[in-house]
Write a structure and sequence with these properties.
The complex is a heterodimer of chains A (282) and B (255). Chain A has 282 residues and is mainly α. Chain A has one domain: MetI-like (MetI-like fold), CATH 1.10.3720. Chain A is 76% helix and 0% strand. Chain B has 255 residues and is mainly alpha-helical. Chain B folds into 2 domains: 33 residues; 203 residues, Orthogonal Bundle (MetI-like fold). Chain B is built from 10 helices and no strands. Chain B starts with a helix and ends with a helix. Classes of the chains: A mainly alpha (282), B mainly alpha (255). Chains A and B meet through helix 1, helix 2, helix 3, helix 4 and helix 5 of A and helix 1, helix 2, helix 3, helix 4 and helix 5 of B.
Chain lengths: 282, 255
């Protein structure tokens, strides 16, 4: 019988002493960014001006207000007719500014796309749009309300202005995703500028355009309400502002918030359905 | 032919919607659009900061700084909370279906209450303090980020989680060692986007609640000190553009 006098052992090779670090450069940058944001947050919370507020009492009163808003909504001093009319104005304002904005933005986007127009033109348009976009919508509305007077016209122009700047960026980036070869080939075979856009580029980017337009639609609804509250357009935002800022009627605020929620959720469902419907067809 | 018919139908419908909206809003399309150039000229004449404007620079810069750090802190606080909600609510990591539905519904509720309503509700309890603006931005960001984080976690490859479970990792090990490191950079990208967004919204909240840079703008604007108001607009634009450029750089570096 052969016995193994000595069990065979395998010595695994000793790993070299160089540390294998899991921390790569992107990770390091990520940590630095999150760390510095954290520091700013702590600093900001520590120096937050609470205006001699007793936080406990404030949260308690918030609780009471929320309860009277959401559990006991009622109509207050306005009538259903007035509120529903104001709500339809808000929706109309949203539709109007989105449609007008999308229409104008598409034609500007054609000239802002690097693969369709010369670089200097595209860059100039993009820079101007970036500037317009960086100024909040509400400031545009306030600025236009001085020129045109408070009311619907200033609201529409201000909202449309910002929508155009937003959509030009989104649309032109979608257009730029069309392969250069397609455009070159069509140009070489003598197809004109606008036919290229409407026959070749537009059909292929419609889903992207639709989804950006719907995103802007939802933003515009929130903006339309804001404009009513801050710049006095005669829409639901104005009644919201009056009910909470002047009459202190939280039951009515609750009712208006419920109305806004209903519209926002309906918009979300409609846009999801339409997008799904379009994607299925193509 | 059918395609063309459908196209004309859609176009007709859009024009109809436009007409009805114009009537409801009472908007004069052509006379208003004709005023746009005049508006821009007026803007460039009156909103240009002049030699008197420099005296306003101190308070403006201070409020701009406060607004910036409040946008950041409200986003970060909301992000921490939404991370917990997102882990509880995402299909792949949720402990049970009840959590999923609750998180989804709650996020949708928070998101769809307009920031104006938040500002007005909070103003009554928290008065004219920075805290009102902070909370208004916080609640809205919470809604948005919970949804974005949930979707990001759900997009994650489910097989990796299964592999971790197969080697005997428990729930917390799965979440902290499997899910979070994987999604960290896309979550940070969302956080940066929300900071930009909140800086813009902070102006609106400020106008409504009388705090921060929005209040200062409203104050100068209503007092016809257009040069100072113009300086604020200019500085907000510069800050937003700087923030956009920085976050683009960061996004590229951590991708």
């Amino acid at each position: 019988m052969i016995e193994n006098s000595q069990p065979k052992t395998f010595q695994p090779p000793v790993p070299s002493n160089g540390n294998i670090s899991l921390v790569t450069k992107p990770r390091l940058i990520l940590r630095t960014v999150l760390g510095s944001l954290g520091v700013i947050t702590v600093y900001s919370l520590a120096t937050l001006d609470t205006g001699n507020l007793k936080l406990g009492e404030a949260f308690q009163s918030l609780g009471v207000n929320l309860k009277s808003m959401f559990l006991q909504p009622s109509i207050g001093q306005d009538t259903w007719g007035v509120l529903l009319r104001a709500l339809s104005t808000s929706v109309a304002l949203t539709l109007l500014t989105t449609l007008l904005g999308a229409f104008i933005a598409f034609f500007i986007a054609v000239f802002a796309a690097r693969n369709l127009s010369p670089a200097w033109l595209a860059n100039t348009i993009k820079a101007v749009m970036a500037f317009i976009r960086s100024i909040p919508t509400i400031l545009w509305v306030l600025i236009y309300s001085v020129v045109m007077g408070l009311g619907a016209n200033a609201a529409v122009v201000g909202l449309t202005f910002h929508s155009i700047a937003y959509l030009v960026k989104a649309y032109s980036e979608s257009i730029e995703e069309t392969p250069q070869d397609t455009i070159e080939a069509l140009k070489a075979s003598g197809v004109g500028f606008w036919p290229i856009i409407f026959q070749a580029i537009l059909p292929s980017i419609v889903p992207a355009l639709l989804s950006w337009t719907f995103i802007r639609f939802e933003i515009n609804f929130a903006n339309a309400v804001a404009v009513g509250a801050a710049a006095g357009a005669d829409d639901i935002g104005y009644y919201l502002f009056m009910a909470s800022g002047f009459y202190f009627n939280f039951h009515e605020v609750g009712l208006i918030v419920y109305m806004l929620l209903a519209i926002a959720i309906a918009l979300e469902i409609i846009s999801m359905r339409l997008r799904g419907h379009y994607l299925k067809q193509n | 032919m059918q395609r063309r018919l459908r196209l004309s139908f859609v176009l007709g419908l859009l024009i109809l919607i436009y007409m009805v909206s114009v009537i409801l809003v009472n908007f004069q399309t052509f006379s208003s659009l004709a005023q746009v150039p005049a508006g821009l000229i007026w803007l460039f004449k009156n909103f240009i900061p002049n030699e008197h404007t420099a005296s306003y620079l101190g308070p403006i810069l201070y409020q701009l700084w406060r607004t910036l750090i409040i946008s950041i802190s409200s986003t970060i606080c909301a992000a921490l909370l939404s991370l917990i909600f997102a882990v509880l609510g995402a299909k792949t990591t949720s402990p049970n279906r009840g959590f999923q539905l609750t998180v989804r519904f709650g996020a949708s509720l928070l998101r769809n209450i307009p920031v104006v309503a938040w500002a007005m509700i909070l103003l009554f309890s928290f008065k004219q303090s920075d805290f009102t603006g902070f909370l208004a931005l916080f609640f809205m960001t919470l809604g948005y980020l919970t949804r974005a984080f949930t979707e990001t976690i759900e997009d994650l490859d489910g097989e990796k989680l299964q592999a971790l479970q197969a080697v005997g990792a428990n729930y917390f090990q799965c979440v902290f060692c499997g899910v979070l490191p994987e999604v960290a950079s896309s979550l940070t990208s969302w956080v940066l986007y929300m900071i930009e967004n909140n800086l813009r919204d902070a102006t609106l909240v400020g106008i409504l609640t009388g705090t921060g840079i929005g209040f200062l703008f409203n104050h100068y604007f209503k007092g016809f000190r257009y040069d100072a108001a113009g300086l604020i607009v200019l500085l907000i634009a510069v800050l937003v553009i700087l923030l956009e450029l920085t976050s683009t750089q960061i996004r590229r570096a951590i991708a």
